[in-house]
Request: fold
Amino acid sequence: MINTVFDQDYLRDPHAAYARLRREAPVTLTATPQGVKVWLVTRYEDVKAAMTDPRISKDFTANPEVIKANELAGGDSSGAAAVTPDNMLFSDPPDHERLRRIVVKAFTAGRIRALRPRIEEISSGLLDLLEPEFDLLKDYAVALPAMVVGELLGVPEADWPKMIRLSSTTIEGSARDPREVVAAAEETLAYLGDLCAAKRADPAADDLISAMVRVHDEGGRMSQAELVDTAWLLLVAGHETTVHLIGNGMRALLTHPDQLALLRADPTLIPGAVEEFLRYDGPLSTSTLRFTTGPVTIGGTDIPAGELILVSLLSANRDSAQYEQPDRLDIGRAPSPHLAFGHGIHYCLGAPLARVEGEVAFSHLLRRFPAIELAVPADRLEWRPGMLMHGLTSLPVRVTADSR
Reply:
């Protein structure tokens, strides 16, 4: 029996929906809004287990039929299939290690430390442009990571708005017409293919896509499809998650004045606060799809081979079996191993960069604006549709004149 999860009640309050599932059906058979059958895993320990079980795969390139095979009558799996390209996110060992090694040097601790002054500069420039009332999401949280990842990858500044639009459409796949998702994915991959060709014609460029082009051309360790699809992954993942880390974190602070006052009084708490924002209202509701290559038992539930698996990171991070008072925002909470960046071999490669961007963003916003508040009632804020991303559609705020 298929349990309805991703409905209007879920969109209004996913935390309540996940709390019910953790109590009543922690591993449940449900369907995406487009009619694709999936098993949803919601408890912390079960989520960790599913993300490390070798019988649960992400290699859809080698198994392209598995998504279509789980399409219900009247369903349309084309949108889901369009966003599973040939990159390290959708690969298993040994291909996963090979592809990850090619890009990991761009995200070392030393490289991220070296990027911090530029991130600070971009943040300050964006804040200089803001009016006393502005949309913190659109005018700041979207722009900051777009500019950072655009420079890191080598995407021309004139193309950033288009890339933001296309990545948003692709990421919101479960809430959109599959034809829109397919068209956006195809346009993105075509653009990145052309960009890789342009980088090949300018071998002196010092950016991540240029470096990957050289790996492809000189060593043969990366196919053309892997080159383009890895650029797609870094572009989308490097932008969307950081946007909603900042947006969700500021919403949490603005609706918890005691925590906002505590953070203003002691800015050294900001790194820990970023971790709490990731746990409390992280940017990802679920992971991307996985599938079983053989029979698997998760949380006492038997799942046959060839079934699709979704793990809920948002739910795992509110599991009372793992956290004391999980629904309470506590920026002084003792360090906890949250799952906002995943777990296992697919742990987010860009997590160090997202953390630094978050630290810079919250530090700058609180220092620049000693008085900042929501410009609309909190219950009027709307969450984005879809299963993957957990983020707001907008975050209108107001600052007093003397706080600028």
